[in-house]
Design goal:
The complex is a heterodimer of chains A (497) and B (142). With 497 residues, chain A is an all-alpha fold. Chain A has 21 helices and 2 strands. In chain A, 74% of the residues lie in helices and 1% in strands. In chain A, α6 runs antiparallel to α16 and α12 packs across α13. Chain B is mainly α and 142 residues long. The chains are: A mainly alpha (497), B mainly alpha (142). At the A-B interface, α8, α9, α17, α18 and α19 of A face α1, α2, α3, α4 and α5 of B.
Chain lengths: 497, 142
């Protein structure tokens, strides 16, 4: 293990990778600080730009963006009561009151320290967990892979929306879209309707850009308010050493919470930050202070959402199942660079994996340094007028989608997915299951069919192999949980009514 | 309004699933005897989608009426149309001409009239993205 980390260090310490980290962090700050731009959108927009880079550099840059963006959201959360990312939604609860009291610097300082600590703790868990998990997964046969994909999809479908029907429909639509193209076993083109461009299936980048970035464009326009946010001058006085040391316990606990929530496919920054916040409030002796500007209330969600970043990479790298929406975008980035996310990465591409681990650690420190220096600068990001950002967003999407295959068709695919994403958002359908289904669809179908070939057509194979059986049971439990919950709720209503 | 939209959406999914299921009739049978035909898996997904969308249909019809949130739909339609126009003109005018035009018009529509910012941004972004993508590999539209 240690030798591998040294390998990672070796691979990372050259100017290309280090500058990739810095660029990624800077872009991440920008994406995070701008309200409305989420890490998933930011990573999606950056992926086409990483084409010419080696996989390691691309991956490190994208993950650095992810890390910095999760912190960056707290900047506007604290200063103007608007979370810059979904993961910073809980940070407004104590960050903004603290800033109102005249201590924005303390809030920002707590946030950056908590975020860095969260990222480092999360990455430690990432390194500790993903390696044995990958070793375990190397023994998987197609049956296990299918059951795992099924489990991943059911968890995501149930977790990502209040309405489980919509979640499953979203996943189903994603799987269906993945069927378009050449059948992997029989080389027959399905649902192509004679269109040559569709033979290779739906290209990832245009789909992701459409679902994440273009929907953001639509959202900005339809909620457009020409009045620009004004930023007042603020003091950047940092918290004292005593206050920082007092946060030690809360940061550790929240980081662990964040890491584990990140590992759950489908649960991302929002869930992590709120759960950490609520748990911190519940067990804190200062719980009355929460909501009025308590430092603990800033440290808890911020360490959780950065720990979540590394947590979401655990299932992605070891099993091939993204732990969050942004991880799904990273999955497609990996695939575009020719790497299949999953346990084989740990065998065939050790340098990339361990380079990424070291890169994440370094990235957290770079984020800390840039955050401490440039707090005032990042806050100014808010002053970028939306009227300029929205068209630029559209233009970046267009060029990004085009650059994959030099084809305008891909751009129209992106528009198609943008419309789907818009309709989904309007009618409360979750988008995350669609993208995860697109990512997992190929694996799901091929494992399913391969397993059945092995067993000569008998579906029992999924139930007789122990790991597969456990995963199927878990999938079933996750599938029926909403039913049971609804049933219990209805019983309560009847009893109390 | 929201309900009706969901009803329409679920009907749409039902209809599309039905059409696609019919399309799978033409799929060839499996090549290897023990393997599944190319139609099996899509049919599985389509049938599941069909059942789920029927459930959704029933669900949406039962709920009380909800309205769509307020939003600037007209602005959205205008901006999107300009975007689509840009895409249509892109192969004709080329990237270097179409993009600054698009950016400028769109920024203008969004009520931002500070030309000393929008014009340099429009031109600057075009040049920047052009050089970045030309340098890497993507050949932009001429």
């Amino acid at each position: 293990m240690f030798q591998n980390l040294l390998l990672g260090l070796n691979v990372v310490t050259n100017w290309n990778v280090l500058s990739a980290i810095v660029v990624g962090i800077i872009l991440g700050y920008f994406v995070g600080a701008f309200p409305g731009l989420n890490p998933s959108t930011g990573v999606a927009l950056l992926v086409p730009f990483t084409f010419g880079m080696t996989p390691l550099i691309a991956l490190v840059m994208l993950c650095s963006l992810y890390t910095a963006a999760e912190y960056g959201g707290s900047i506007t959360a604290i200063l103007i009561n608007t979370p810059g990312t979904a993961g910073a939604a809980a940070t407004v609860l104590d960050g903004y009151p603290l800033a109102q009291k005249g201590f924005p610097g303390k809030a920002l300082g707590t946030s950056i320290i908590a975020s860095t600590a969260g990222g480092l703790i999360g990455t430690t868990f990432l390194i500790a967990f993903s390696v044995p998990l990958a070793n375990f997964a190397l023994r998987f046969s197609p049956a296990e892979y299918f059951s795992l994909s099924l489990f991943g999809l059911t968890i995501i479908a149930t977790l990502s929306s209040n309405n489980w029907i919509k979640g499953f429909i979203a996943a189903g639509i994603g799987l269906l879209l993945k069927c378009i193209g050449t059948d992997p076993f029989a080389s027959y083109d399905r649902f192509c309707f004679g269109n040559l461009w569709l033979f290779g299936g739906i290209p990832f980048i245009p789909a992701i850009l459409g679902l994440f970035a273009l929907t953001e464009f639509f959202s900005i326009v339809e909620n457009f308010n020409p009045v620009q946010e004004k930023l007042k001058k603020f003091s950047t006085k940092m918290p004292d050493l005593e206050e920082i040391l007092g946060l030690f316990r809360i940061i550790s606990i929240s980081s662990v919470i964040g890491t584990f929530i990140g590992m759950l496919p489908g649960a991302g920054g929002t869930v992590a930050s709120f759960v950490a916040y609520n748990e911190a409030k519940r067990f804190s002796p200062q719980r009355e202070e929460f909501g009025k500007g308590c430092l603990h209330g800033v440290a808890a969600p911020e360490s959780a959402n950065n720990a979540m970043v590394s947590g979401s990479l655990v299932p992605l790298l070891s099993l091939g199942i993204p732990g969050s929406a942004t991880a799904a975008v990273l999955a497609s980035a990996l695939m575009i660079h020719g790497l299949q996310p999953g346990p084989l990465l740990f065998v065939q591409n050790k340098d990339i994996i361990y380079g990424l681990f070291v890169g994440l650690i370094l990235g957290n420190f770079v984020m800390l340094a840039l955050g401490l220096i440039g707090a005032k600068l990042w806050a100014k990001v808010v002053m970028v007028p939306r009227a300029v950002l929205a068209p630029l967003l559209f233009a970046i999407c267009v060029i990004g989608a085009y650059s994959v295959n030099n084809s305008m068709f891909d751009v129209w695919i992106m528009i198609f997915f943008g419309v789907i994403g818009y309709v989904f958002r309007k009618f409360d359908f979750p988008i995350v299951p669609v993208i995860i289904a697109l990512v997992l669809g190929y694996l799901t179908e091929t494992s399913f069919r391969r397993a059945l070939i092995f067993s000569n057509g008998s579906p029992l194979i999924f139930f007789t192999r122990p790991i597969s059986l456990i995963l199927i049971i878990l999938a079933g439990v996750t599938f029926f949980a909403p039913f049971i919950r609804e049933y219990k709720d209805n019983r309560k209503k009847i009893n109390s009514g | 309004m929201k309900n009706k939209g969901e009803v329409v959406l679920s009907l749409l999914i039902i209809v599309i699933s039905g059409i696609l299921l019919y399309a799978t009739k033409d799929f060839p049978p499996s090549i290897v005897k023990t393997s599944l035909s190319p139609a099996f898996y899509p049919r599985l997904i389509l049938s599941t989608l069909l059942i789920l969308s029927i459930l959704l249909l029933v669900n949406s019809m039962r709920r009380p009426k909800e309205s769509l949130p307020q939003a600037r739909y007209l602005l959205l339609i205008i901006c999107t149309s300009i975007g689509l126009l840009y895409l249509v003109l892109l192969p004709l005018l080329g990237y270097l001409i179409a993009t600054p035009l698009f950016l400028f018009v769109e920024i203008y529509i969004l009520e931002y009239r500070r030309f000393y910012v929008s014009v340099p941004v429009a031109i600057g972004f075009t040049l920047f993205s052009y050089s970045v993508f030309q340098l890497l590999l993507g050949v932009n539209l001429p």
